[in-house]
């Protein structure tokens, strides 16, 4: 089961990379229309699409081995009712993967500034910390296996990502070869820093929960 934002991309990736039979659920009919178009284009028949509310999923208890919840729980004032519903349809030993924005990172700060200026185009989103994910473990009756993060900076190309991109451009440009060593130097300097402190700039965090009973 794949729930939420990005159904057209994520469900296809899950099916193609794992050969799994995937049910993709989204509240937006327009998103599902795009998803079906992608499915027809890449010929991926092992996916079925359903328009439904994650707060009241039309499935029996213990119906799915894996539930992948991406980019959706941040749109609710409280994510717990929706997460409980996702945990309900999870089979014993099943895995719930929850992807949400991380609260403490430059991207979140930029987003809140833009919201105050009333120019943030994506609607309100709640940000979360790793402590929130650990609290969910108790509320959901699931076992938190691990927490991971991904994505750097804001506008997708700031901070570490901007440095990485600048280094790549300098190393790959042909017009001024004298600048290519600067690109190598940028990598030498920024990669150890990113490895040591990059987790502080994670844009999203992912919690992997398991249903033990």
SSE run: EHEHEEHEHHEHHE
Instruction: Please name the CATH architecture of the largest domain.
Output: 3-Layer(aba) Sandwich
Number of domains: 2
Shape: globular
Sheet/helix structural class: alpha/beta
Give start-end ranges of low-pLDDT stretches.
153-158
CATH fold-type name of the largest domain:
Rossmann fold
Top-tier CATH class of the largest domain: Alpha Beta
Q: Would you tell me the overall average pLDDT? A: 83
Q: What's the Cα radius of gyration?
A: 20 Å
CATH superfamily descriptor of the largest domain: Vaccinia Virus protein VP39
Per DSSP E runs of 2 or more residues, the count of β-strands stands at 7
First and last CA, distance? 19 Å
Described by strand count, sense and barrel closure, the largest sheet is: 7 strands, mixed
* Beta strand %: 15-25%
- Report helical residue fraction: 40-55%
- Order of strands side by side in the largest beta sheet? 3-2-1-4-5-7-6
């Amino acid at each position: 089961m794949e729930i939420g934002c990005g159904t057209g991309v994520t469900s296809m990736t899950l099916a193609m990379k794992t050969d799994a039979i995937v049910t993709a659920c989204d509240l937006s009919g327009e998103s599902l229309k795009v998803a079906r178009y992608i499915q027809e284009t890449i010929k991926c028949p092992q996916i079925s699409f359903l328009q439904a509310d994650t707060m009241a999923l039309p499935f029996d208890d213990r119906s799915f081995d894996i539930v992948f919840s991406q980019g959706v729980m941040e749109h609710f004032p409280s994510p717990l009712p929706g997460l409980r519903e996702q945990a309900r349809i999870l089979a014993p030993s099943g895995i719930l993967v929850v992807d949400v924005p991380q609260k403490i990172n430059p991207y979140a700060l930029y987003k809140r500034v833009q919201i105050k200026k009333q120019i943030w185009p994506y609607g309100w989103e709640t940000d979360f910390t790793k402590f929130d994910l650990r609290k969910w473990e108790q509320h959901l009756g699931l076992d938190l296996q691990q927490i991971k993060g991904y994505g750097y900076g804001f506008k997708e190309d700031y901070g570490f990502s901007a440095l990485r991109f600048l280094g790549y451009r300098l190393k790959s440009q042909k017009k001024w070869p004298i600048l290519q060593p600067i690109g190598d130097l940028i990598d030498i300097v920024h990669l150890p820093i990113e490895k040591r402190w990059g987790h502080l700039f994670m844009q999203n965090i992912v919690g992997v929960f398991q249903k033990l009973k």
